[in-house]
Amino acid sequence: MPVVPPTPEELAELAARYGFQLSDADRKSFAGLVEANLAAHEAVERLYARSAPSAPHRDYEWPQDNPLGAWYVRTRIPPSGDGPLSGREVVIKDNIAVAGVPMMNGSRAVEGFVPRRDATVVSRVLAAGGTVVGKAVCEDLCYSGSSFTSAGGPVRNPWDPTRHAGGSSSGNAALLAAGEADLAIGGDQGGSVRIPAAFCGVVGHKPTHGLVPYTGAFPIETTIDHLGPMTRTVRDAALLLSVLAGDDGFDPRQHRTPEPPDYLAAVEQDIRGVRVGVLTEGFGLPVSEPGVDDAVRAAADRLAAAGAVVSEVSVPWHREGLDVWTVIGTDGTARQMIDGNGYGMNVPGRYDPELMVHFAQGRRVHADDMSDTLKTMILTGAYAAQRYDMRHYAMARELAWELRAGYDAALTQVDVLVLPTVPYVAKPLPGPDATREERMVNALGMVGNTAPFDASGHPAISVPAAPVDGLPTGLMIAGRRFDDATVLRVAAAYEREVGGFPSAAR
Fold it and tell me: Coiled coil located at which positions (predicted)?
């Protein structure tokens, strides 16, 4: 499409925005210079059209039987090779591109988009023998820890359909808990793999930041974007991580990423002598339910019974981490995901120009359809960026190094940290009369323990702890950066100690 030069009015508006004092002669001169530079933009249009991929034809169908509201679209994409996932069915969170299959990312602003290229994690699943069987519903642009913000409707918890399933990888967790998928790939920026895993009683692993390539997934904020496995067993999480992990050469999040170890071998090892730190600051939050804290402390006792050396550990920075994450998750997200149309600029990674344009146009048309969590994030982040010149974002990113160092220091004394994934069991889905403030608490009130590890980049897994009032909750195990193997090893030992994890009765 032709690149149209600015009108005199548009040029004057741009000059005023940047404080340029231009005379009529200046404006005429700059108009010619700008138009000359825009010739390169037209050339790039032609060059990109020459090399841009076309979406492959893949059959798909809209789900007919979908009582939990967890399927977005069904498909059956056969593997491209043989490997460790042969015979396994994999569902993909709907913020991850599957070429030729519709993508909505829980949002009217993205609805109707069909990716042209598979995300790296999808290509790796297919190459490893896995069969992709569909896309799972996720929350509106993935910005919720509950499961009622998706534009397509709520995702219901298989343990109690009146309650939320957690988010933002809500559909993944519900489908796994209900036995409708073998394996799933989710995304985690503030807990979005671990939170629904905890509320639905499945396994969710957030890898070390940068271990799994994010290429082809809809970004929220580059410094906190993660993709990771969601499964019913720890061994399956290790299996799927072994397929997904490693550099792809396109993701700027992947720098200094070591070669992944043998995660399957790690989960077969016992934990005699492994040092487990019960993180003091992860318990007794203002919103914590005592039964959840008790269930996780009991889980730590089971680790001791399996041979671990368990002690109490304090990381004062953990309670400060939520504030650090919140600034990154408002100011950074508003700048990248909203103003930057998902991808932002200035990083040498893969971009999706078609998705950026589709989303930019869609979010303008469907701005009023956005969830209250998104609107609050946008208003907060845009105001802070404009009024305070992004200083708080810069401060938060600097403080993230101190948050990381706080965990690193504790992890010289112990090998892993344990704490509740979520502070309470799944709450009822909000009713039509719920206030905006009540919906906000329901959507984001549970991220206090999960979000700090997104800001610090440490690996963390959620596995089912003992049920509380008949509902699942989660034991979170966090470890050293790029030592995902030890995190999985401790999780697998706990799974063996309790004799496996229960499934939802439907």
Answer: none
Q: How far are the Cα atoms of 179, 185, 236 from residue 231, in angstroms, in the given order?
A: 10, 9, 6
- Which residue bears the tokens 């650090």? 324
DSSP state of 66: -
pLDDT digits (tens, 9 = 90+) for 387-438: 999 999 999 999 999 999 999 999 999 999 999 999 999 999 999 999 999 9
Residues 257, 253: Cα–Cα separation, whole Å: 9
pLDDT tens digits, one per residue of 186-209: 999 999 999 999 999 999 999 999
Comparing C-alpha atoms, which of 149, 196, 205, 151 is closest to residue 177? Answer: 196
Summarize pLDDT for 97-149 with one digit per residue, the tens. 999 999 999 999 999 999 999 999 999 999 999 999 999 999 999 999 999 99
Contact criterion met (CB below 8 Å) for 463 and 416: no
Q: Which residues are catalytic?
A: 93, 168, 192
Integer Cα distance of 491 and 116 in angstroms: 37
- Distance, CA of 11 to CA of 5 (rounded, Å): 9
Distances from the Cα of 395 to the Cαs of 167, 222, 332, in angstroms?
A: 28, 16, 12
What's the 3-state SS for 87-149?
Answer: CCEEEEECCECCCCCCECCCCCCCCCECCCCCCHHHHHHHHCCCEEEEEECCCHHHCCCCCCC
**Spatial distance between the Cα atoms of 191 and 168, rounded to a whole number of angstroms:** 8
Contact yes or no for 488/263 (Cβ under 8 A) = yes
